[in-house]
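Folds vary. Our protein:
___
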Amino acid sequence: MSKNKPVVMIGLMGSGKTTSGRLIAEALGLPFTDSDQYLEERHGGTSAPIAAKEGKEALHRYEAEHVLDGLAGEPKVIAAAASTVESPQVREALRAAFVVWVDAADEVLAERMRTSTHRPEYAPAAMRARREPYFRAVADLVCDVGVMSPEQVRDAVLRKMGLPEVDRD
């Protein structure tokens, strides 16, 4: 496998898609794109205000658009919103990418989001019940971020892709 293949980070909120994704992008020398930044730049707000104003269906459409747009261009590392795996079109497009599912126990994810205003009513168990089969279907690598640091996720991705790990001097 080469670093010329896009890498897509998937997982529930609080799993560290952005943090690990940035490290992977830096190691591979690829651009990085995150759904939150994409929503801000393209649609003028973060997920909560967009969902409140336009509805969850519009939000999920915009989040899917982020992944599809990212996969259409030059290879990059994409931190995808969890909702994107529900889209058959996105799941099909992910076949062209190296997909990393970052996951942890629901309690770990809930604790990480506890102080966030991003989605204060976050219930990982409900989200997991709906999305886990899709995550499993598309993932090339699963990383338990309850026990792995973002750097360990990066290194696991590089190993799985057959690339040298980052020099830690």
Notes: The chain has one domain: 7-160. The domain at 7-160 is CATH 3.40.50.300 (Rossmann fold). The two ends are 26 Å apart (CA to CA). Helices lie at 17-28, 35-43, 47-54, 56-72, 88-93, 106-113, 124-138, 150-160.
